[in-house]
Amino acid sequence: MKHLIDNRFGPLALVLAAMLALYGVAAVTRPAPAAEPAPGPRKVPVAAVTTVCPDPAGAQIGVVTPPGGEVVAPGEARIEAADKVLDTLNEPGRLWHETAPDGTGPVTVTATGSSAAGLESAQTRRETSGRHRGLAGTRCAEPAASTWLVGPGPAAADVTLHLANADLATAVVEILVYSGEGQVVGEAGGILTLGPGESRTLDLADLAPSPLVMAVEVRTGPGRVTAAARAVMRGGKGVDWLPAAAPPATRVVVPAVPGGGGGRELLVATPAEVDTLVEVKALTPDGTYALKGRELVEVPAGSVATVDLSEGVGGQPAALVLTSDTPIVAGVVATGTGKEPDVAFTAGTAPIDLGSVVADNRTGKKKSSRLLLAAPDTAGKVSVQVLPRSGEAPEPFELAVAAARVEEVELPEMDGAFAVVVLPLPGSGPVYGGRVMDEKIEDGLALTVQPLAAARMWALVPPVGESAAVVLPRDVSDAP
Hints:
Blueprint: H1 2-6, H2 10-29, E1 42-45, E2 48-53, E3 60-64, E4 77-81, E5 84-89, E6 96-99, E7 107-112, E8 120-127, E9 134-139, E10 146-152, E11 157-164, E12 171-179, E13 182-184, E14 191-194, E15 199-203, E16 213-220, E17 226-233, E18 239-242, E19 244-245, E20 249-257, E21 264-269, E22 276-284, E23 287-290, E24 296-299, E25 304-308, E26 318-335, E27 343-347, E28 356-361, E29 367-375, E30 380-388, E31 397-401, E32 405-410, E33 418-424, E34 432-441, E35 444-451, E36 458-461
Antiparallel strand pairs: 1-36, 2-7, 3-6, 3-8, 4-5, 4-7, 8-9, 10-16, 10-19, 11-15, 11-17, 12-13, 12-14, 12-16, 17-18, 20-26, 21-25, 21-26, 22-23, 22-24, 22-26, 26-27, 28-33, 29-32, 29-34, 30-31, 30-33, 34-35
C-alpha cells in the first residue's frame, strides 16, 4: 500500500476504485427500468379508395371528397363504367352529381392522394309508378372480405344480389343464407368465382326460395368483392337497397329508425350454433326504455327472429340497442304510409368516431332529408357541414345529442343535390346515426334510409420493427 501511495498515480487509482465500488452498489440496488410499452398501430391518412355503385342505371350518382383532409400527395378521383371514364375529379369539397343513362352497369370510383381521404359515393333512383315505385338509395360499397345484409327474403320480395370484383386478383365468393327456420342449404350451391373486374347479379330465390326474412353473409377467400342487395317488395309495397350491417357482435346499435306512421319490424339473426336471448332497448327523443312485452327476443341457433315494433316506438324516430351473450346481426324494415307505401331499411352500424359523409341528399318542395343521431352511452356533439353541387357552402353548425336519446335535425333547403359531412367534436361520446330522405308522391310517401358509416379517412398501419429473422434462412429442424 505504501508503495502505491508513494507512486504519483496512487491517489488517482484509489479514487477510481472507490467510484467503481459505489457504482456497483448503485447498479445492484436500483430498480430495473420500466419496460417500454409495445408500439401500437399508427393512424395514417387513407391514400387510396375504391367504391362500386352496384346498379346505377337511371339513378343519380353523387361523389364527393370532404375538404380539410390531410394531404399525403396530389391525387384525383376517377369515375368509370365498363372501362369508360365518365369524369375525373380533383377538387375536394365539391359534389359531383349526375344521372347515369339506362343500361349503365356498375360504376367504379377510384380515388388517390388528396382525393382519397373521406371519399364517398352513393346512388339514388326515384320512380313514381310501376313495381319500382319509390326511392331506392344505397351507399356505394368498397371491396371487403365479408359483408352482412339483413332484410326480407325471396318469399316476401324479389331480392337481387349484386357482386363486383374491383381488385386485380380473382375472388372466390361464398354466400351463406340464414332464415327464420335456420341456415339454408340450396341445391344451386353458394360458391362462385369472380375474375378481376368481373361483376355478377344473382336472384337469391335461386339459392333460398322460401324465406320470408333472411340474413346473408357474402364472404371471400381469397380476394375481396363488393356486395349489395336490392329488395322489390311483393304487391307493389316499395323498393330499396339493404344497407351493409355491422358484423356479428354481442352489442349492436341500429340507428335511424324513421318516425311517423307505417310498420316497423326488427330482424335479429345469429350465425351461432346455440340459441341466444337478446335484450332490446329503444332510444327516442324522450329517452331510453325497454319495449313492453318485447324486452327479450329469443333467436334460435343459426336463424332470424322478427319483432313487430310498429306500436313499440310510438311513431317516434328511434335507435335500438341490442345486447346478447352470442354475436348477432340486426336490421329494421320500415314501411311508409299511403295507398301505395314505400319501404326502407336500416341496419346495425359502428359509431362515427372518424366522422361520416352522405353523398346524395335532396330538400325543397316535397323532398325532405334529415339526420337521426343517437348517443346511447354518453352525450355527443357533432359538427354538420353541407356541401352543395354548386355555389358557396353554408357555414357548418354544431348539434348536441343528449345521452341515451335520439336527436332529429332537418337538413337545410338547398337548390339541388348536396352532400353532408358529420364530424364528432372533441369530448363527444360515441354517436350513431343515419340520414332519412323522403318525398311526397301521389298515393304515398317515398322514403329511403342510409345509415351513417365511418368515413374512409384513416388507416391503421401495424408497427414495423427491425429483425434479422426475416432474412435469415429458416432452420429446417424447426419445421413441423
